[in-house]
Specification:
The chain is of the alpha/beta class. The protein has 5 helices and 9 strands, in the order E-E-E-H-E-H-E-H-E-H-E-E-H-E. The strands form 2 sheets. The chain has a 7-stranded mixed beta sheet, with helices on both faces. Strands 2-3 form a two-stranded antiparallel sheet. Helix 2 (about 60-65) links the parallel strand 4 (about 50-55) and strand 5 (about 70). The chain is globular, with a radius of gyration of 15 Å.
């Protein structure tokens, strides 16, 4: 069976460390933080595109215009795992894998995403793939990542840490540390 890949962008978290404002709506280089990733994704074709967001997220309109299904996760206290669960449940029946990206990582390049997709094709979707920083001093390992739906279904429905338990089996694709910065605090802008 050939692997079928859907894209899931997660953007439904609390953003507690950022303050009361929606960090994905905060301006970064003239546009909302949450919309930067969309630029890196624009030249790729996916069987299905899903955006997990909170109700009344004002930064999501360009995703809808780009053909994303907007799925609301108004349960941020369920952590990243609650968003992953909703993404899994929203996947079409023919989908076998999810390409997971985080909306608060505005610097990820299309070049890195292409490397992940190429490796996915080479491995025929048999190995989980994740990103690793190219720096020896920055130990980041995580999204963007590609996991089989069957593996994601083994995770709890709630909690933080996302798909971390699945990373021990992953093949890591190096990425410049400058692309892996996420926006957690206002100073990160």
């Amino acid at each position: 069976m050939k692997a079928k890949l859907a894209l899931a962008v997660l953007g439904a978290g609390y953003s507690r460390r950022f303050g009361k404002e929606d960090k994905l709506l905060a301006s970064l280089h003239g546009k909302p933080v949450g919309q930067h990733l969309l630029g890196a994704l624009e030249n790729f074709s996916f069987t299905q595109k899903i955006l997990l967001c909170r109700e009344n997220s004002l930064w999501t309109a360009p995703y809808a215009q780009a053909g994303f299904e907007l799925i609301q996760n108004n349960n941020p206290e369920g952590g990243m795992l609650s968003s992953l669960r909703k993404a899994v449940l929203s996947a079409s029946p023919n989908i076998t894998h999810l390409f997971i990206c985080l909306a608060d990582m505005p610097f990820i390049s299309s070049t890195h995403l292409q490397k992940l997709l190429q490796k996915f094709e080479e491995t025929k979707g048999e190995i989980p793939l994740a990103t690793q920083s190219d720096s020896k001093t920055d130990p980041y390992k995580g999204p963007p990542a590609i996991f089989a739906l069957n593996d994601l279904n083994t995770l709890p429905d709630r909690g933080e840490g996302g798909a971390r338990p699945l990373l021990k089996e992953a093949l890591f694709i190096p990425c410049p540390v400058s692309e892996l910065k996420d926006i957690d605090l206002k100073n990160d802008l």
